[in-house]
UniProtKB/TrEMBL annotation:
Domain of life: Bacteria
One Pfam family named in its UniProt record: TPR_12
SUPFAM superfamilies per the UniProt record, alphabetical: TPR-like (SSF48452)
Protein name: Tetratricopeptide repeat protein
InterPro entries: TPR-like_helical_dom_sf (IPR011990), TPR_rpt (IPR019734)
Length: 108
């Protein structure tokens, strides 16, 4: 876990760093450390926006939506699910759209 954090910080490749941060945020969420996950999610999203990595960006919004949903921030969750859905549609990923829409329906 700590080695991934060090690797993410040392990486000069923004997409690798963003994926590492996204993975750490998912681990935080699964371990119930929801507040710790938030800055990692947000940092990953910023990096992915910079480089225009739509697929990873869509998944990052989806993962952040799951985290804020667990924090009972339903409107924020819906906003991130909507962004993920839009991006997945843009890249032609219907199964991912269905997955996100399923999570969004639980948040409403």
């Amino acid at each position: 876990y700590q080695q991934v954090g060090v690797f993410a910080e040392a990486s000069h490749y923004k997409q690798v760093k963003a994926k590492s941060l996204k993975g750490l945020a998912e681990i935080d969420r699964l371990q119930g450390q929801l507040e710790a996950a938030l800055p990692r999610h947000r940092q990953a999203i910023l990096l992915l926006e910079e480089i225009g990595a739509k697929c990873d960006l869509a998944d990052a919004h989806y993962q952040l939506g799951l985290t804020v949903h667990q924090l009972d921030r339903q409107q924020q969750a819906l906003d991130h699910f909507a962004q993920a859905t839009r991006l997945f549609r843009d890249i032609g990923a219907p199964r991912q759209v269905e997955r996100v829409e399923g999570s969004a329906s639980v948040s409403q």
